[in-house]
Design brief:
disordered N terminus, signal, D-Maltodextrin-Binding Protein, domain 2, 254 residues, 2 domains, 9 helices, Amino acid ABC transporter substrate-binding protein, two-stranded antiparallel sheet, 10-stranded mixed sheet, alpha/beta, Solute-binding_3/MltF_N
Length: 254
């Protein structure tokens, strides 16, 4: 009888534990499409270090995660209007005013300039970009240095880094702005688009380092509590090296 009681007690504990796991809150994590190697689709599956890092942070904070990769403008709307968490987003005053509530900094990426090989153009400061036709991702922000120089450039928007590279080769833009991109990305592009690394010039000096966050809607009833949990998880995963390991996993460095 004693053994039967012990078995029954164990079953209660197991069932209770399973119920606790099942009751974890499911969070929609949204990311931008076409931001290799940060966030992209590969054979229909979400990939990229901004996604991997955000998933790890959310799981450390106790959430179950469902990932969706969407056009960047739509991803921001899903966060603002429909309760999703967004990853790989830089903090700007416009976004704060729109209702973004940001976590602490999760990771940073260089903002890189790429032009057609053979260009005689030089780059030392943002002032060198004045008057140029510059390609950027639609809805993207690349940090305060770029934003301050934006009114002095002719901006050509697109929906992916791949479109930007094609415009560079075709001479439609003077250069493109890319976040988190190095030679590994150009190797990827040459394989997927039939382009060659030798067709491009990467300027060695980054425009700046873009500080990337996760964010939720300020109007969400769970916003403050969630941000507190996410910030605690970010600290833990920074200290134990998880974020750095995931950040380096795609070999995108210079």
């Amino acid at each position: 009888m004693r053994h039967v009681c012990m078995l029954a007690a164990m079953l209660v504990l197991i069932i209770g534990s399973a119920g606790a796991v099942r009751s974890a809150e499911i969070v929609r994590l949204v990311a931008g499409e076409g931001f290799y190697p940060q966030m992209f689709l590969e054979r229909g599956q979400p990939r990229g270090y901004a996604i991997d890092i955000a998933r790890a942070v959310l799981e450390e904070a106790g959430y179950d995660v469902h990932v969706e990769v969407l056009p960047w403008a739509r991803a921001q709307i899903e966060m603002l209007k429909h309760g999703a968490v967004i990853t790989g987003v830089s903090k700007t005053q416009d976004r704060i005013d729109a209702g973004f509530l940001f976590t602490d900094i999760v990771f940073s990426d260089p903002t890189v300039l790429i032009a057609k090989a053979g260009t005689t153009m030089g780059f030392e400061t943002a002032g060198d970009l004045h008057g140029l036709v510059v390609g950027i991702q639609r809805g993207a922000s690349y940090g305060p240095v770029f934003e301050a120089a934006r009114p002095h450039m002719i901006i050509e928007e697109d929906d992916s880094k791949e479109q930007r590279l094609r415009k560079i080769v075709a001479g439609r833009i003077d250069l493109g702005v890319f976040s988190g991109t190095g030679p590994a990305y150009l190797l990827f592009a040459s394989q997927s688009l039939g382009l060659s690394r030798e067709e491009f010039k990467i300027f060695e000096k980054p425009l700046e380092f873009d500080l990337l966050h996760m964010a939720v809607s300020r109007d969400s009833p769970r916003a403050d509590g969630m941000i507190e949990k996410l910030n605690s998880a970010i600290v833990k995963l920074t200290l134990d090296g998880t974020i750095e390991r995931l950040h380096r996993a795609y070999g995108h460095g210079f």
